[in-house]
Write a structure and sequence with these properties.
Elements (H helix, E strand, L loop, with lengths): L1 E2 L6 E4 L5 E4 L4 E10 L4 E16 L2 H5 L4 E4 L4 E3 L4 E6 L3
Parallel strand pairs: 5-6
Antiparallel strand pairs: 1-4, 2-3, 3-5, 4-5, 5-8, 6-7
């Protein structure tokens, strides 16, 4: 679980060059990450519990787009090699 405080931010760069940035007051769970292309094991699942996130997909999304998901309290985003911003309000 990754969290930022009221005035904080966080940048995360995964081994496949996926970039995740969290804004102030955010909470993100990195539920699954596999990056072993030679063995065909690829996957990424993150869950934005609340706050703001910028996402830039890396090699996992390019090599195996069906294995990448970003979940929020009200929706799941399938990632197909893209960049996006998302904001999740607390329930």
């Amino acid at each position: 679980m990754l969290r930022t405080g009221a005035g904080g931010s966080l940048g995360l760069l995964l081994k496949d060059d996926t970039s995740i940035s969290l804004g102030p007051g955010s909470r993100l769970s990195l539920d699954h990450f596999r990056f072993a292309p030679a063995q065909g094991r690829l996957g990424l699942v993150v869950r934005l519990v609340h706050g703001t996130m910028a996402f830039v997909s890396g090699l996992v999304a390019k090599l195996s787009p069906e294995s990448v998901r970003v979940e929020t309290p009200v929706a799941t985003v399938g990632v197909r090699g893209t960049t996006f911003l998302v904001k999740a309000e607390e329930q």
